[in-house]
Amino acid sequence: MILRVADICVKVCGLKNLYIATDSKKIAHLVKKNNYNVLITSKYCLTGTDRVAETSKKIDANIFINVQGDEPLINPIDIKKIIKAKLDNPNYVICGYCKLNKNEDPSNKNIPKIVMNSKNELIYISRSAIPGTKKKYKHNFYKQVCIYAFNKKELNYFSKQKTKSLIEYIEDIEILRFFELGIKIKMVKLNSNSVAVDEKCDIKKVEKILKNR
Known about the structure:
8 strands, alpha/beta, two-stranded parallel sheet, Spore Coat Polysaccharide Biosynthesis Protein SpsA, Chain A, globular
C-alpha cells in the first residue's frame, strides 16, 4: 500500500522531492529497496503531522504536502489541486474533502466528517455524523481526504505543542490542533472518491475498486 501511494505521489513532485517519513524499519527497508527517499523519524511523534513537522527541519522547502500512506486510491490531479490551493492561500492550512460514497455510513467512527462555511473554511470535523438534524432533512455528508498542505511556520507552531490538544485528543483527529491554535483551515473539494484503509475490512473494498479500474 505504501508503494502504491508513493507511485502516485512521484507523478506529481518527482523522485527528488518525495520523502517517505516513518519510524518503521520495515517500511524504510521496503521503500529504499524501491529507490524512494526515506527520513527516519522519532517513534514519539504524536501524529502524522508531527512527523511531517520533524522532517520539515531537514528539508529546504516553502510548502510541505502530506499524503497519508493509507490513501491508495488518490488521484495525482487531487494532489496538484492541494498544492495550487496552498499557493493561492498561503495563510491557510489546506486539506482535501469529498462526498461520502453511497456505501459509506456517516455513523462510521473511522470516517472524519466535515462541516464548512460558505468560504470553504473548516467549521468542525468529527467522527460523529455531522451536521446532525432533528428533522427529516436529507443532506449530503462530506469526509476528509488526508492530503494536507502546510508551510514551515505552521508546522513549527503545531509541533511546539508537546501534547495533543483537548478536542484533538477526544476526536483523535490531528487537524483539530490547528483549529484550536487559531490557524484557519481551507477545505478543497477533490475529484476522486477516496477510500482510506482505516481497518482491515477496507482492503477488500479498495482491491475491488482497483480490479474494476
